[in-house]
């Protein structure tokens, strides 16, 4: 025993020494203000690093690599802990040239000084006209800088098991009130059947629902952020789902995309799915036996307010430290505006383009076999037009989402309500901004 | 009987002691050659990260102007630690694993001890087989074990749940009240064999003459086990307890995996998960402070336990 104690004491002494050494050689980790980098083409062959989480993206990149021998792109799939991987790489100064970043995480990474402004590259600045306006505005932070190019969006819709709705003679719901009534009817007809599931671990999905109801969570004015996660609009959404949970009309035990969730769908225990455009390939690839049974209709609306929601969607960001901005811009523009690339991304990864031309792709005008040849992208195009374009994300969204999820889980377990979850998210937003020295206040 | 135990301890310890006294002093060069392979990684992968964490934990983020601003870190004294101490999520997570440890560690070590004693009895056949099968779970990485168990817990996929439903039970292994114990079960499954092996090795080093002497004195197998074997292997019980205390405080993989199928495990369920959640929110300095506090608590508890037991048992 005594030898262990000695060893530990030695260890502590060594640790103390190493702190002194570290303290001695460190310098303040200040960072320069994001200024436009220069845009010089490289001499000779260049290899770019591109990190993403899109299924099938390596095939799109193969296509580019075949056509562009001088600008080769290497991909890395970071779908497992996407932002943790990017954050750590940034901290280590080893970020890739390009990385997929969701709209909701852009401000977060911006406050970490993750991006380089590519506006010095003509092609990047000119790309503005090619994208759905709100996506460009979010990716450029409403500024003249170009920090990322939009890739896809997630306009929301309602996926329905038309066979189940027909079997129990339930009309397709157009409003949330009708949806709740349908939930009651279906569950009454078959106690093992619920209309959908509420995943307490999915703040992104819930944010999409808040977005639909014009619940703005953040604003910026008078040199500070204004946090309005708690508002009359968000309260309305929270109380609606709370009611469904309390009445046990929705399941709360299924995590989005889990084996358990697919199993429940497979067993015909769930009749619908409130999802985004990219979910179309997810259902097609994971529930092949249910081909022909699904129909996609517009998302239920809040009475007279016909707005739709958006869940997810990403950009491809220009990461700080890239030595090949010119080439990065060339690849990034191709990746997100070229019809051939966009069609492939839609087919393999389910991406719904953010480029305006992309919405006119011939492949998006066709019926999709899995959905009984329904022209499902017409529904998403309509939804996309009805998304509130002024919605903005906060600079500490990840922390806020975690707090929201933890509190949503409590509500699902009957320990608190979804209104409490909004309060928890509001508090977490203010606290996390304070921790990051970002000036913030509650209310508008 | 205590007398026998004390005598036994002396018998076991004396050969080692003699060797230490008689061993000749090796040359300095040899010492360095043998220690470098240990110390180099120890410094690189242990001391340097610990030092870095301590350094980070006394920093705070500041920012200059604008909507997104430019951040830099500066010395902040004990600001991060103050926040940790005021963070009720942190204390809730400590309380949770405290409860976990108080139940799981004794249960696991008790089972391990029983298994070790059973393996050590002359009555048992197929010892090698039982030793291997008991140890096998330890060879399974923690994450894999948790994934495997998560299938057994899952109401949608589990044959166990189906079976229990068949006899009229409605188990909810992932419910708010049960999920902590479901995680504890995974840990117990993983680590019992490992602990058993440490205890079994200690039992193996007890000289057989001792048992013969005890039998002549009229002791049966039960008495030999509880009055001779257990006291003699007390140091290994202390060791496994200390390992288990450390393991409990570092609990991460099992609840993190179960979290993917149960919303009743929050992102701050254990102190390590809290540190991870905070770090993933870019608050590396706060995460460093949390890690340091966890390390200090681990240190205090494990050494506190060792001192306490060594004083009591005179080890």
Q: Which secondary structure elements does this structure contain, and how are they paired or packed?
A:
The complex is a heterodimer of chains A (about 450) and B (about 325).
Chain A (H helix, E strand, L loop, with lengths): L1 H24 L20 E7 L4 H11 L3 E7 L4 H10 L6 E5 L3 H5 L11 H5 L6 H7 L8 E14 H6 L8 H14 L13 H10 L5 E4 L2 E4 L4 H15 L12 H8 L5 E5 L2 H8 L7 E5 L11 E9 L6 H13 L1 H11 L2 E2 L8 H4 L10 H10 L11 H16 L5 H18 L4 E3 L2
Parallel strand pairs in A: 1-2, 1-3, 6-11
Antiparallel strand pairs in A: 3-9, 4-7, 4-8, 4-9, 4-10, 5-6
Chain B lengths: L1 H21 L5 H30 L1 E6 L5 E6 L3 H8 L1 H33 L6 H13 L2 H12 L5 H8 L12 H26 L3 H9 L4 H12 L1 H16 L3 H7 L11 H10 L3 H30 L2
Antiparallel strand pairs in B: 1-2
Give the structure's gist in a few sentences.
Chain B: Residues 94-305 form the ABC transmembrane type-1 domain. By secondary structure, chain A is α/β, with parallel strands linked by helices. Chain A has helices at 2-25, 57-67, 82-91, 106-110, 122-126, 133-139, 162-167, 176-189, 203-212, 232-246, 259-266, 279-286, 325-337, 339-349, 362-365, 376-385, 397-412, 418-435; strands at residues 46-52, 71-77, 98-102, 148-161, 218-221, 224-227, 272-276, 294-298, 310-318, 352-353, 440-442.
Tell me what the structure shows:
The complex is a heterodimer of chains A (444) and B (315). Chain A is of the alpha/beta class. Chain A is 44% helix and 15% strand. Chain A has two domains: 19-153 and 312-362, D-Maltodextrin-Binding Protein, domain 2 (3-Layer(aba) Sandwich), CATH 3.40.190.10; 155-309 and 391-439, D-Maltodextrin-Binding Protein, domain 2, CATH 3.40.190. Chain A has helices spanning 2-25, 57-67, 82-91, 106-110, 122-126, 133-139, 162-167, 176-189, 203-212, 232-246, 259-266, 279-286, 325-337, 339-349, 362-365, 376-385, 397-412, 418-435, and strands at residues 46-52, 71-77, 98-102, 148-161, 218-221, 224-227, 272-276, 294-298, 310-318, 352-353, 440-442. In chain A, the strands form two sheets. In chain A, strands 1, 2, 3, 4, 7, 8, 9 and 10 form an eight-stranded mixed β-sheet that branches. In chain A, strands 5-6-11 form a three-stranded mixed β-sheet, covered by helices on one side. Residues 1-35 of chain A have low confidence and may be disordered. Chain B folds into two domains: 30-75, no CATH class; 89-313, MetI-like (MetI-like fold), CATH 1.10.3720.10. Chain B is globular and about 85 Å long. Chain B contains 14 helices and two strands. In chain B, helix 5 packs across helix 8 (179-204) and helix 6 (142-153) crosses helix 8. Chain B has a two-stranded antiparallel ribbon with strand order 1-2. Chain B has helices at residues 2-22, 28-57, 79-86, 88-120, 127-139, 142-153, 159-166, 179-204, 208-216, 221-232, 234-249, 253-259, 271-280, 284-313; strands at residues 59-64, 70-75.
